[in-house]
Amino acid sequence: MGIATASQTIGPYWHLIEDKDWADLTRFGATGDKIVLTGTIFDGDGKPCPDTCVEIWQSDPPTSDTFPGFGRANSDATGTFRLTTIKPGPVAGLGNAQQAPHIAICLLGRGLMAGLVTRAYFAGDPLNATDPLLSSIEDPALRGTLIAVADGPGVWRLDIRLQGDGETVFLDV
Amino acid sequence: MSDPIPFRPYAPGSQPSLDTPDYVTTRKRHPLRAPIKIPHTVTETTGPVFSQTHFPPSVDLTINTTGQKALGERIVVAGTILDEDGRPVPHTMVEVWQANATGRYDHPGDQHDAPLDPNFHGAGRVYTDANGRYRIVTIRPGAYPWPNHHNAWRPTHIHFSYFGPAFASRLVTQMYFPGDPLLAFDPIFNAIPDTRARDRLIAAFDMDITEADYALGYRFDVVLRGRGATPMEA
Ligand SMILES: [Fe+2]
Q1: Residue in B40, B74, B104, B144 annotated catalytic
Q2: pLDDT of residue B233
Q3: Closest alpha carbon within chain B to A45
Q4: Could you confirm whether B144 is annotated as catalytic?
Q5: In this structure, which topology does domain B24-224 adopt according to CATH?
Q6: What is the pTM for the complete model shown?
Q7: pLDDT-based confidence at A19, cuts 50/70/90?
Q8: A125 found inside a domain
Q9: Chain B contact for A168, CB < 8 A?
Q10: B154, B198, B225, B227: which one is catalytic?
Q11: In a domain, A88, yes or no
Q12: Which of B34, B38, B170, B225 yields a CA-CA distance of 20 to 30 A from B120?
């Protein structure tokens, strides 16, 4: 039996992010509730991280010729990323559970030896209360690090703090 | 609907720690709290399937910008992508990017005082075949300095990105070259605890991949996570 190959940092990822189109998951003609997911990434000193690669994956809506389900954006000089996608609906959890609508996020970057995984849920969604992951986190401040907030029409903001005060909840997947 | 089959946890020692103080940038970027272990759901066990129409392959990095040939030692890198159970990972996207032969990235962010090659950009994308095999043609990159510590040099390396079948099988890594004296000094390579896991990132010179009168060949095989037989404990 093999052992999974080791991760190494993506580094400053010079070329991986050159195709800016990847930040728009609707570019092949997807229709639905088009939203922007944006946020700023901060390091342990509270300084913005201008060189992070933010990848997202969502299993809903299902991938198709018009919707890749996967997107990628860099954080800019202010540490801010911006992705355009279709707002997901609820997806199956384990057993009979249902998961609230969410987008999986993987951060890759200089100074990250492996991908940092987290999720963006959507504030105000009634299913958040019964989502298995959200309801397993007792501290509302911690839970809040996984919940994007409305920031204008169709715009959802999730700031990500890598370390220290307000540190984002990361997931071991 | 039955629950999805989870991916197995990583083998102990096989993955680098996020907290790797010798790699200075990790000091302010590694989380202090342990990540929450979550059972794999459809979010983790599914992943993107890239259409080659939307994401066309570009196999030969030595001609992929201007049509003129890049300078440097031409090489072929080929290998097989398997999962931990030895099954090939077919038709999956492999992304590759690297410095040119002088150790300079064709990118405005790279300020290293080494010449650019107008005929080498240094980025490619290929797909594995039905048997999990891939092959690229490129230039052997140069080593380059970086500001981590005094006289710090990255070993010669090529960056690789893999997807596999799921969000949980995503892998970004670096391929190194056999016999590179810089490996012993590199905090990124040495962040992997298990020396065997480290050594698996070093490609092997391979006469079968070497093409007569054309290019030296290196084998770089990669293993992506396999699925566990039993559901992971929550
Ligand atoms: Fe590099």
Answers
A1: B144
A2: 42
A3: B28
A4: yes
A5: Protocatechuate 3,4-Dioxygenase, subunit A (2.60.130)
A6: 0.96
A7: confident
A8: yes
A9: yes
A10: B154
A11: yes
A12: B170
Residue A171 lies in a domain: no
Q: In CATH, what number is assigned to the domain containing residue A147?
A: 2.60.130.10
If you measure CA to CA, which chain B residue comes closest to A1? Answer: B85
Average pLDDT over residues B27-47: 97
Kindly state the average pLDDT of the residues B170-186: 98
Mean pLDDT of the residues in chain B: 95
Buried b (16+ CB within 10 A) or exposed e, B166-200: bbbbbbbbbbbbeebebbeebbbbbbbebeebbeb
| Structure confidence by residue, pLDDT tens digits, B119-149 | 999 999 999 999 999 999 999 999 999 999 9
**Which of A43, A137, A164 faces B32 most closely, judged by CB atoms?**
A164
Count of domains forming chain A? 1
Residues 115-154, chain B, touching A (beta carbon < 8 A) = 121-123
Residues of A in Cβ contact (< 8 Å) with B167 = 57, 104, 106, 173
Q: Which residues form the domain of A22?
A: 11-161
Express each pLDDT in A92-145 by its tens digit.
Answer: 999 999 999 999 999 999 999 999 999 999 999 999 999 999 999 999 999 999
Ranges of beta strands (E only) in chain A are: 34-42, 52-57, 70-74, 80-86, 91-92, 98-99, 102-109, 116-122, 147-150, 155-157, 160-161, 171-172
Interchain contact, A16 vs B44, CB within 8 Å: no
Beta strand A171-172 with A160-161: parallel, antiparallel or unpaired? unpaired
- Which one of the listed residues B157, B198, B225, B227 is annotated catalytic? B157
B57: left (phi over 0), alpha (psi -120 to 50) or beta: beta
Angstroms from B171 CA to nearest CA on chain A: 6
Give domain status of residue A70, yes or no.
Answer: yes
- Please give the Cα distance from A41 to A81 (Å, whole number): 8
**Domain boundaries, given as residue ranges, for chain B:** 24-224
**Residue B127 annotated among the catalytic residues of the structure:** no
